[in-house]
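Hey, I was hoping to borrow your eyes for a little while. No rush at all, and the record is pasted right below:
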Amino acid sequence: MTVYAIAQLKMTDRAAYDRYQARFFDVFRKYNGRLLAADEQPRVLEGPWPFDKLVMMSFPDEAAFLAFSNSPDYEDISRDRKAGAQATVLLVRGFAPAG
């Protein structure tokens, strides 16, 4: 089942985050993910949103996401992401209608 990784980011060190971002696609393209959105100015329609950026990715299944997120390559670049932004990351299962 398709899963979606949703990251909400609050920048703390833009230079560190930019280093992460510059290397992200070299790692990401090795896995079966798709980048669906990366928006630094999403339109908030309701409620508070104390973040600076939203990123949405899809993966064929949870195993594919975990292969990406636990890979040595991603762990290496994620140091800059963690230094550059506080994050709330969600992993959401896709919807499969019954029947």
